[in-house]
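Researcher: I'd like a structural prediction for the single chain below. Treat it as a standalone chain; there are no partners to consider.
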Amino acid sequence: MAIKKILVTGGAGFIGSNLSLKLLSKGYEVTILDNLSKQIHGANPDKTSPLYNSIKNKVHFIEGSVTNREDWLKAIDSVDCIVHLAAETGTGQSMYEIEKYVGVNIGGTALMLDILTNTNHTVKKVVVAESRAIYGEGRYYSKELNQFVYPTERSEAAMRAGDFEVKYKGCDSPLKLVGTTEDSMIHPTSVYGITKQVQGQLVHLVCPSIGIASVSYRYLAEQMPDMSRSYIQKIIKDGLVTVSEKPVKANYRLSLYESIKVTIPELKEPEIEAEDIPLDILYEDQDIIVINKPKGMVVHPAPGHYSGTLVNALMYHCGNELSGINGVMRPGIVHRIDMDTTGSLIICKNDMAHQCIAEQLKEHSIKRVYYAIVHGNIKEDHGTVNAAIGRHPIDRKKMSTKCKQGKHAVTHYTVIERFGDYTFIQCELETGRTHQIRVHMASIGHPLLGDAIYGPAKCPFKNLQGQTLHAKILGIIHPRTGEYMEFDAPLPDYFNNLLQILKNNY
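Model: Treating it as a single chain, here is the predicted structure.
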C-alpha cells in the first residue's frame, strides 16, 4: 500500500501541525482541512496563531469544516490516506455544548465515512485519533474491595462542597489512582469522551467493510501489538521519551502542562520471502484457496516468526495472486486459527473475494465446526456457552470471560463420545473471538486437552503439542458464484491416535 498524499483534518492544531511538518520532512504531500477555530487560533490566525503560521504556505491548506460535504469532497481529492484529527475538544466544555460536540465529532466522522462509502476516491487508509477521555475518571485501586475500580463522574454537589475526590459505590476509604493500562475499562464520563469513543468505533466498523485500512491511536498494546511494554521501556531507556525536552525514566511523574515527546525509531518492515513449503489444499480456484493447516504452523509473519508461516508458503504457491487488503505481512489472510490448532482456513486471492468473506465473518454467517478433546466428563449431550470474551484483566497474553469490556461470544457444543476423564466434542461457533473455544470450554471447567494456557500446565499425554483442536468444517458463500460451499478437513494423525488411545484405555 503506497501512501504519498495525506489529508490531515484539524491539521492546524497542536498535534496536527506538528504531524504535518513531520510528514513533509519525510517527503509526503500534505493537505490540511481546518476551520481555524477562534478559540484556538484567535480572530486573525495570520497574526495570532503560531500553529497556523508554522504550516502556512507549506501544505495545501483548505479552510473548511468536517461537517460540510463540499469541503470534504475538495479535501479528499487524490489523497491516499486520511488522518482524522478534527474534533471539538475539552471534557468540561462538552457537558454544556452537547449538540456541537456530537455534531462535529460524530457527525463529521459519519459524513466522511458516507462519502468514502458512496463516492469514487483514492483513499486507502484512515487513521483516527481517539482520546484518553474514553477512560473517564481513570483507573483506581480500592483496598476495601481489594480490586481495581472505575469511578463514575464526580457530582456537582460534591464539587460545590469542595470535595473533588472520586467515589466508587461501596468504598468509604480514599481510592488510590493507578496507571491506566491497555486492559483498563473504557468508560467515558463526558460527552467529549463518548464522542471520541464512537468516532473510533465508526471508523473501525465501516472502513474494513469497504476495503479501507483503519488505525486508531489510543493505547499502544491494543492497536499496535508489535509495540510491547518491553519495547516501550526500551525506548524510554534509550532517551527517546522526553518531558519538556529532557529525557526521563519510566517512573517519572508528570506535572500539569508538561509536554511529552515520544520519538519512535523508524521501523523497517521485514521482507517476507516465498518458501517452498508443502500445502494440504482442500480447494482452490481463481478467487479462494482453502488449506488444511498443520499443527505448529503460524498463519502470518510476526515478530519471532518471519519464516515457515502459512503466508510464506502461500506466496510461493500463489505468487502475486493474493489479496492486498491486510498489507504485505498478511496477504490473502482474512481470518486465522492458532498455531497449534489444525484444520480448515480460507485465503483470498483478490480484494473482491477478501471483502466478501470478511463481510460473512462480520455477519457470523460462515459455518465453522471444530472437533476437540476436553478434560472431564461432560454430563450434558448438548450445551451452549454464552459469555463475553475480552483481554484478561491481569495477563494480557490471555483472553477471559471475567473482563468487564468483553465482546459477545457464543459457542455451541455437542458430545460425540465420552472416555471417562475426557470427552470428545464438536463445537460450532456462532461468533469468532480470539481463543473462543479454548476460553469458553475452560470457563465451564472443561479445558482442552493439551492447552497449557487455559488448562493444566502438565499434559497427561507425552509429546502432545498444544491444544487438541481441529477446524473440521468450513462453510461459506462463494464470493463470485454466490453458491454455498462446504469444506471438510480430515482429522490429523495425532488426533486420530489420541482417540484410539482413549478408546483402548477408557
